[in-house]
Request: fold
Amino acid sequence: MKHTRPATLVALGVVALLGGFVVDTALVANGRAALVPPVPLGLVLLAIGGIVISLAVPVRRVARGTSTERIDPYYATRVLLLAKASSLSGALFGGAAAGVLIFMLTRGVSVAVGSLVPTIVAVVGGLALLVAGVVAERMCTVPPGDDDGGPGAQAV
Reply:
């Protein structure tokens, strides 16, 4: 499985940013209240990022050879898929919250702190989940072995 490409994450983030901005603009234009992400959203995204990293640590130990313990290959695959999903979800959540934040900051009126702080927390939580997903994905990478033609391979 290949690593998640940065271009994919940036594209998802930009699309979500535009979506968040457009949805908030449409809501306010129709006389409805703007979306404000709740504070627990950002905190839960941070917690999920921490959980993803903690799940990847045993896989990294085995992959780097610092642990002699065997690890279930299905567990390692699930952690890798969770890491990939977390990076994509973090790009979407962070981008959408950033779109809402940009909408709030570009309005002609001042924004209440009660609306601004939760949105900033959601942006930080989304970006933290994105980074945690990418880091966990890299932690699950097995270095090239002697039989793969890596740096430690011997010429036969």
User: Anything to note?
Assistant: Residues 21 and 41 are 18 Å apart (CA to CA).
